[in-house]
Design a protein that fits this description.
alpha+beta, transmembrane, five-stranded mixed β-barrel, 14 strands, globular, 2 domains, transmembrane helix, membrane
């Protein structure tokens, strides 16, 4: 065989391996976009789990702007509402802040729905349904909530897992120094946060369901793409009108449900860049040996 022909075959062989390595290692880069709007509830269809909002303003990441400045093709947006919305305190004619995913010209998915106490984009929220991480305003009584979910690693798809528990923290006041304790909640549990400032209002939080990133599960590295969403029912109530609902998990021989109270460290993963460099070095060494032997 002609030496140049042999060299060409070796180069082709090495190129094929490199393409396979880089192709497998390429991460998923799909992104789930969200849009947050303010507007009036025009229609609620319980049979279809749909709600239509006449949008008046859009959140641009820093402030509320008019629909004509930054938005969509239509001012009327219809979408499926969160499970927590069933039997909620929002009615047709109420003014809301809401976040959705999908094309506003079609049926979207409402990620969160929040009722504001008066017309205007800067008012306080009385009731919220869905994912509170997308809320722009605080709750009435100056309550604010944050949470973190933890995955059930036996129930995952390509990007996210269902959440086995959620750590919930509620603060009150502008300095947010109250409620230093973090409460672990399972899906279906409810907790009433009483104001330490003597307020006649309390914040009642129900963890309906949730998702969590799978990067904290053994065998999975950091993933990109669809972000996890969770569903909470949150209401500002009068003091003494709500009560907690908690569950005691029962371990079984087949599976024990862990309740995590600390944020787990992300598992150490070997750098993809290190893998590629190692592969390239090995292939070049093989090529050098073959060339030296006259193959």
């Amino acid at each position: 065989m002609d030496p140049k022909e042999k060299e060409g075959k070796i180069i082709f062989f090495i190129s094929a391996i490199l393409i396979a390595v880089f192709g497998v290692a390429a991460p998923v880069t799909a992104v789930t976009d969200t849009v947050t709007v303010a507007g009036e509830i025009l229609e609620i269809s319980a049979d279809d789990a749909l709600a239509t909002v006449r949008v008046t303003n859009v959140w641009n990441g820093e402030s509320w702007v008019g629909v004509s400045v930054r938005f969509i093709s239509r001012e009327m947006v219809t979408g499926h509402y969160p499970k927590s919305f069933y039997g909620g305190e929002i009615s047709e004619g109420d003014f809301v802040h809401a976040t959705f995913t999908g094309d506003a010209g079609e049926i979207v998915e409402w990620v969160t729905f929040s009722k504001v106490l008066a017309h205007g984009t800067g008012k306080y929220i009385s009731d919220s349904y869905g994912d509170p991480s997308y809320l722009i305003s605080r709750f009435s009584g100056n309550f604010k909530m944050s949470y973190e979910t933890y995955p059930d690693c036996s129930d995952c798809n390509a990007q996210v897992c269902s959440a086995v528990s959620s750590n919930v923290k509620v603060s009150q006041g502008w300095e947010e120094k109250n409620y230093n304790q973090i409460y672990s909640m399972m899906p279906g549990e409810r907790r009433v946060f009483t104001s330490p400032e003597g307020s006649e209002q309390e914040l009642m939080v129900t963890f309906v369901s949730g998702q969590a990133g799978r990067e904290n599960c053994a065998g999975y590295g950091e993933t990109t793409g669809s972000q996890p969403f969770s569903d909470f029912k949150i209401s500002v109530i009068q003091k003494g009108t709500g009560s907690d609902i908690t569950f005691t998990p029962t371990p079984s021989p087949e599976k024990t449900v862990p309740i995590k109270t600390e944020i787990p460290a992300t598992p150490t993963q070997e750098s993809p860049g290190f893998i590629w460099v190692t592969t390239l070095a090995a292939l070049f060494c093989i090529a050098a040996v073959l060339k030296k032997r006259g193959l």
